[in-house]
Design a protein that fits this description.
The chain is an alpha+beta fold. The chain has three domains: 12-28 and 48-120, Alpha-Beta Plaits; 133-386, no CATH class; 391-441, Membrane-bound Lytic Murein Transglycosylase D, Chain A. The chain is built from eleven helices and 13 strands.
């Protein structure tokens, strides 16, 4: 590997990583032959490429190699294609595993090899069936959000795995549980909830009950964050800004702000207890804070993606293209921050070598799940924008109100609210001068 000038990427399929021993690739032309009598040769019609075929020889070795092999076999058996990360070419979309075989050898202990044939496919197009791209994109995003939540839960189970009261990466299990308890109380206060409605049910620490207690704590924190962020989006349910309500974009920005406040809790929590020598929270290490931050990162990111999809579904027709793009950008920035945090955890797990390899593999799966989820959200935003007519700039034909301009443009004063959403620079809708530049849909 060190002899390669190209920076090789870690190979994986549907987020499951593996080591590669050899790769063979091929492609071909799909040719239609048209033979004619009494003529030498045939006429060949180029029908396009048959699609790339990638033959991979992968190996699994070391402690717990069998569990990693089984994860790959599980995703290979799933229907449909997925993303294959090629060490040299990078991400290859919609690759379908056509066949695979694997073997063990008596001379190689804790070792297995698997040969897989991937074929490139195009997404099936419906024949004589009308497909609403917006609804299809929404359906795919909802399915991807469910997959992300499942992967995130598996990752959290991996990072809170303890043995003998100690985690390989984070240290004292008691410190982790104390940190989760303190974070829950701090977030509850930050979001304006009380202890009666949201009691902490993580329980007291014991080595035997740590796994169940940590899982309950994480679940409670996730539910609390979701309730708080959804509460932040209800600052004004009316979309009409002129009537004193908040726009959809403003409501989502409030949820993003609430999420950023939640993510700042772990650092503030330790600083608030730093002077208290008897407080367990003052003894939290940087590693333990990192584990708690990861829990918050995954929860906040998942909730924001879900809220964004719901807002686009409910209000996509009323949102302008810039508002949709800003919402998409906010989510992508949040996801990128979460991916950066996961990559730091990958580095920490890699430094621990075999003792934390389950964390390393689940990190990679979670990153891939995030990338695919935000990709589906981007496709939904594009579909929502494509449904809108082209945006043009017109001049106000005369002095008057926004309703008069709406009637002049469309012969429909009911579209005045639409013009106000498209023109935030108009501060006085009842006093618009002639020749003022007005954003408007072409039809």
């Amino acid at each position: 590997m060190s002899g390669w000038h190209t920076v090789l990427q870690e190979a994986s399929f549907k987020g499951v990583p593996f080591e590669i021993e050899r790769i063979e690739e091929r492609n071909a032309k799909d040719l239609a032959a048209h033979a004619r009598p009494f003529t030498s040769g045939v006429d060949l019609e180029d029908m396009g490429n048959t699609g790339r075929e990638v033959n991979i020889s992968a190996v699994f070795f070391g402690r717990q190699y069998s569990s990693r092999l089984l994860k790959l076999l599980e995703v290979l058996e799933e229907s449909g294609g997925g993303v294959l990360v090629h060490p040299v070419w990078g991400r290859m979309q919609n690759m379908i595993p056509a066949s695979w075989n694997y073997r063990h050898e008596a001379d190689n202990v804790d070792w297995a090899a698997i040969d897989i044939t991937f074929r490139e496919a195009t997404e099936a197009q419906p024949i004589l069936v009308f497909e609403n791209s917006f609804l299809m994109s929404l359906e795919r995003l909802i399915a991807r959000i469910d997959s992300y939540r499942s992967v995130a839960e598996g990752f959290i189970d991996a990072i809170f795995a303890v043995k003998g009261g100690v985690s390989d990466l984070w240290g004292s299990a008691q410190g982790l549980l104390s940190g989760l308890s303190g974070v829950f109380a701090s977030i509850r206060s930050l979001l304006g909830f009380d202890a009666i409605g949201w009691p902490f049910k993580g329980g007291s620490y014991s080595q035997a009950a740590f796994h169940v207690g940590a899982k309950n704590s994480v679940k409670q924190i996730g539910e609390l964050i979701e309730a708080g962020l959804r509460q932040a989006t209800d600052v004004g349910t009316a979309i009409d800004v002129q009537m004193g309500g908040f726009s959809v974009r403003q409501r989502f920005d409030e949820a993003v702000k609430a999420g950023e406040s939640v993510l700042a809790v772990p650092n503030r929590l330790r600083q608030d207890h730093r002077g208290n020598a008897v407080s367990d929270l003052s003894r939290l290490t940087d590693r333990q804070l990192q584990a708690i931050r990861l829990v918050l990162e995954l929860s906040v990111t998942g909730v924001l993606v879900e809220i964004a999809s719901e807002m686009i579904e409910d209000y996509g027709e009323d949102m302008s293209a810039p508002d949709l793009m800003q919402l998409n950008r906010s989510v992508r920035l949040r996801v990128q921050a979460a991916i950066d945090a996961l990559r730091e955890t990958e580095k920490a797990a890699l430094s621990e070598q075999l003792s934390a390899e389950s964390v390393y593999s689940t990190c990679h799966q979670t990153i891939e799940a995030m990338r695919e989820t935000v990709g589906r959200l981007n496709a939904l935003v594009v579909a929502a924008i494509d449904q809108k007519p082209p945006l043009i700039v017109r001049r106000a034909p005369s002095d008057g109100t926004i309703h008069q301009i709406a009637f002049a443009f469309y012969a429909d004063i009911g579209r005045a609210d639409e013009l106000m959403r498209l023109n935030p620079h108009i501060t006085h809708p009842s006093f618009i001068r002639r020749n003022t530049l007005v954003n408007a849909y072409a039809k």
